[in-house]
Write a structure and sequence with these properties.
By secondary structure, this protein is α/β, with parallel strands linked by helices. 43% of the residues lie in helices and 12% in strands. The protein folds into 2 domains: 1-158, Luciferase-like domain (TIM Barrel, Alpha-Beta Barrel); 162-328, TIM Barrel. It has helices spanning 2-5, 23-36, 53-61, 81-95, 107-111, 120-134, 164-173, 185-201, 223-240, 243-246, 257-261, 274-280, 286-290, 298-312, 345-353, and strands at 12-15, 40-43, 68-71, 99-103, 157-161, 176-179, 210-218, 293-294, 317-323. It has an 8-stranded parallel barrel, surrounded by 7 helices. Helix 2 (23-36) packs across helix 3 (53-61), helix 3 (53-61) runs parallel beside helix 4 (81-95) and helix 9 crosses helix 12 (274-280). The relative contact order is 0.13. Mean pLDDT is 93; it is low at 1-8.
């Protein structure tokens, strides 16, 4: 399991933005990420905007040898846990043991279909069922006979979480937790406290729970764009988990977020123009905007990331989620140092930021 077998290894980086113009282009992009030193290739699951992730990852598995392949994230609304377990076990067999599964409530992928994101209890039940099936256990599901995944493989099951209760639940039942709390010290400390509480309540060693950190990383080097984009990211965190403002005492001195959401589609994290959506929440102060994103030079971003990891005490995976989403092959919009001229985001990050960590 990633939550135990990889402890003590050096920090790994994951990438969740690739060339989705075709499956061949995606597989080639994953191969390029592996060559650059990324340890994880991740796919967000949205059936309306992305091809089938398990099929694309299976193709990428045939063109790579080391990089781990998984979803960030699947959800129990669009997939029954047995379906997800079966698909990821198949991917694990194809890739030679490099697959993993991450669950979340669904968010945009679910809302686009007019469905309700999973509640915390539903997310917990799904993760537990998928984990037991992948372990080859017989599980009572109310059918004539207990359910058992005949092609089970020991694939780790993680949960992506932002709210304190969900983080604590994830530490009770999952192999690892991707923390989506930004980088404010109070939120990071509280998240780790939740992991300790959840793991201890379940009789688990908190040190055996894998820790992933997801950071929205602003790709622009324009101060105006950085400020607006960072505010949009902050509003997105407030939109889905107001506790992340309450814990550090960050102010929301503007209209109710529900009123603002009518002017932003599908949400503040995925708006087509993040500067425009960020300007809608110009009332957010600089401290608030700074609390949820990485930005600036390679040295700035590495320093911000390093401080976050010092607060959590450890991290197994860091996902520097680029915002806005880069277009395939598009040069990164910032001054380049050692990276090749015209380098895209993954090349820039791998050559400019990763060596600093």
């Amino acid at each position: 399991m990633i939550g135990s077998r990889d402890m003590g290894k050096t920090l790994d980086f994951g990438l969740n933005r690739f060339d989705w113009t075709s499956t061949d282009a995606f597989a080639a992009d994953v191969r390029r990420a592996e060559e650059l030193g990324f340890g994880y290739a991740l796919i967000p699951w949205n059936p309306l905007s992305r091809p089938d992730p398990y099929m694309q990852l299976a193709v990428a598995a045939g063109q790579t040898s080391r990089i781990r392949l998984g979803l960030l994230l699947d959800n129990p609304v669009l997939h029954h846990p047995a379906t997800s377990a079966s698909s990821v076990a198949t991917l694990d067999e194809i890739s030679g043991g490099r697959a993993f599964l991450t669950y979340g409530i669904g968010d945009t992928a679910v809302r686009w279909l007019g469905l309700r994101p999973a509640r915390m209890g539903e997310l917990e039940e799904a993760a537990v069922l998928a984990r037991r099936l992948l372990a080859g256990e017989e599980v009572e599901v109310g059918a004539v006979r207990p359910a058992r995944l005949r092609h089970a493989r020991p694939v780790p099951v993680w949960i992506a979480a932002g709210g304190p209760k969900t983080i604590e639940m994830a530490a009770r039942v999952a192999d690892g937790v991707f923390l989506r709390v930004g980088r404010h010290p109070d939120n990071l400390r509280n998240a780790m406290a939740c992991i300790r509480r959840g793991a201890t309540a379940a009789g688990r060693n908190p040190g055996d729970i894998g820790i992933g950190l997801i950071f929205h990383t602003v790709t622009s080097d324009s101060l105006t764009e950085i400020r607006a984009t960072s505010r949009s990211m902050a509003a997105g965190y407030y939109e889905y988990s107001p506790a992340l403002f309450e814990i550090p005492g960050l102010p929301w001195n503007g209209p109710p977020v529900e009123a603002l959401k009518r002017r932003v589609y599908p949400d503040f994290h995925h708006a087509p123009d993040l500067v425009e959506s960020g300007n809608l929440v110009a009332f957010l102060d600089d401290e608030t905007a700074d609390s949820f994103s990485l930005f600036g030079s390679a040295q700035d971003i590495a320093g911000q990331m390093r401080r976050a990891i010092e607060i959590t005490g450890r991290a197994d995976i860091v996902v520097p989620h680029p915002v806005p989403m880069p277009r395939p092959g598009e040069p990164v919009a910032r001054a380049l140092g050692s990276a090749p001229t015209g380098a895209d985001y993954k090349t820039w990050f791998a050559t400019e930021v990763m060596p600093l960590l």
